[in-house]
Write a structure and sequence with these properties.
Elements lengths: L1 E6 L11 H4 L4 H11 L4 E6 L3 H11 L5 E5 L8 H9 L4 E5 L21 E4 L4 H17 L1
Parallel strand pairs: 1-2, 1-3, 3-4, 4-5
Helix pairs in contact: 3-4
The chain binds 1,3,4-trihydroxy-5-OXO-cyclohexanecarboxylic acid (DQA).
1,3,4-trihydroxy-5-OXO-cyclohexanecarboxylic acid binds next to loops.
Length: about 140
């Protein structure tokens, strides 16, 4: 099983940025623990602050990996291009958010990409990524 985690804009600053919202842990630190907890899953990681780079990465991996966990950051709320990219690939995509976007500003309640995704997980801190991975593993098992 091969899963790709894609983080969008400003998520390279996890652990530094708005700690009261996003916590004080860096993503690379969290990723080490996630990889250790799932030794049988090949977990790749990509981060970019650029919309086109995120789309390129979806295209590059979206036909040969088993699932993609995508935190598109603020592009979640604006990007039709990302939604189209998700619809263009075959791998299931789970939309993830660290914070509960529905408990924040009104503009964060809208997701342009959610209708193109298999499901959405939000509000569990960094554990949202593990929950998304579990969802992909269960879906893959169910499909045989
Ligand atoms: C976020 C929520 C977005 O609204 C915000 O723009 C982010 C992070 C989250 O993980 O909670 O950058 O995607």
């Amino acid at each position: 099983m091969k899963v790709l985690i894609i983080n969008g804009p400003n998520l390279n600053l996890l652990g530094v940025r708005e700690k009261t919202v996003y916590g004080d842990r860096s993503f690379s630190d969290y990723l080490q623990d996630l990889k250790s907890a799932y030794p049988l899953v090949e977990i790749d990681y990509f981060q970019s602050n650029h919309e086109g780079a995120l789309i390129d990465e979806l295209h590059r991996n979206g036909f040969d990996c088993d699932g993609i966990i995508l935190n598109a950051g603020a592009y979640t709320h604006t990007s039709i291009a990302l939604a189209d990219a998700i619809r263009s690939i075959t791998a299931p995509v789970v939309e993830v958010h660290i914070s509960n976007v529905h408990a924040r500003e009104e503009y964060r309640r809208q997701s342009m990409i959610a209708p193109a995704c298999k499901g959405v997980i939000a509000g569990f801190g960094l554990d949202s990524y593990r929950l998304a991975l579990e969802a992909l593993l269960h879906a893959a098992q169910a499909e045989g």
